[in-house]
Structure to design on (312 residues):
């Protein structure tokens, strides 16, 4: 099977790095919002605020040339359920883990994506993938070891890490199945349809929690800064980032796209620094190793694509 073209690799690099930038910024932002707002409401608001942007993009986009296959309610429900599980587990995982530790746990995403791609698609990762994975993991370990204020002898595990692992499994499954089931409708419609179902399911989850356990409803209006952060995690964190992610997955596949998502901790560290948390030199070195690993894979794939084009 032929690999992606040079232009596809270039497009994938741009959209996936932008998605990683947005998602990386959400780690400290969600952690800050969770101190004052109910985590269930945050999970639901992320999708509700992003839906108008996604559907506006669908209305403004060019429809597919070929008629898409009929929608299947069962498949839409499963995609929405996977997104719902991811959103809830991600929000609670980030809120119950140190921001830097949460970022490193999320670096395991390529492992789950590779395993699921093998099981569901019988797909093998591209040459150089495992070298990149080793570099990313090693860089992640350095970031954890260099976390300012980390307890000596420990890795800062606070309980939310297992939730983030399960969330990654749900997201990888969604990413694979969404391309199989909805890609013929275009990436904008794919993102809008699956996010719409997820928002309905999340609303139902919030209602059940409200009726049984109760929700901590806000007692005051959000400040200007908090309002900006809420809009950020919804409009950009869901609508824009999900669209960018699905576009990247359609170009290079889930395992490679997951490697790009591992640059999110680098952006998270940068934003945390802007919020007053000074990164250590180990974190900076670890982030550089992560980016170097991704860069070497992209260089290798670009060379292979150019060689294939010359041979053709």
């Amino acid at each position: 099977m032929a690999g992606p073209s040079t232009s596809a690799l270039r497009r994938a690099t741009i959209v996936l790095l932008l998605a990683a930038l947005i998602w990386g910024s959400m780690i400290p932002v969600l952690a800050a919002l969770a101190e004052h707002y109910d985590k269930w409401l945050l999970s639901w608001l992320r999708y509700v605020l992003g839906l108008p942007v996604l559907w506006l993009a669908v209305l403004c986009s060019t429809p597919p040339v070929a008629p898409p296959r009929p929608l299947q309610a069962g498949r839409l429900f499963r995609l929405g359920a996977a997104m719902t599980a991811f959103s809830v587990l991600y929000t609670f995982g980030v809120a119950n883990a140190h921001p830097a530790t949460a970022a490193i746990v999320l670096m395991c995403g390529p492992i789950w994506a590779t395993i699921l791609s093998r099981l569901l698609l019988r797909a093998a990762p591209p040459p150089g993938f495992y070298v990149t994975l080793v570099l990313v993991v090693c860089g992640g370990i350095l970031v954890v070891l260099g976390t300012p204020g980390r307890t000596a002898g420990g890795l800062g595990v606070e309980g939310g890490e297992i939730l983030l692992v399960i969330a990654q499994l749900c997201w990888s499954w969604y990413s694979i199945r969404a391309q199989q089931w909805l890609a013929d409708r275009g990436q904008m419609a794919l993102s809008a349809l699956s996010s719409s179902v997820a928002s309905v399911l999340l609303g139902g989850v919030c209602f059940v929690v409200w009726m049984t356990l109760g929700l901590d409803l806000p007692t005051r209006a959000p400040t200007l800064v908090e309002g900006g952060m809420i809009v950020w995690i919804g409009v950009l964190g869901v609508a824009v980032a999900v669209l960018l992610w699905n576009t990247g997955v359609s170009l290079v596949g889930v395992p490679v796209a997951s490697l790009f998502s591992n640059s999110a901790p680098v952006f998270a560290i940068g934003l945390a620094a802007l919020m007053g948390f000074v990164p250590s030199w180990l974190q900076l070195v670890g982030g550089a190793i992560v980016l170097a690993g991704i860069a070497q894979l992209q260089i290798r794939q670009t060379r292979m694509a150019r060689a294939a084009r010359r041979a053709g």
Remarks:
- DSSP finds twelve helices and no strands in the chain.
- The radius of gyration is 19 Å.
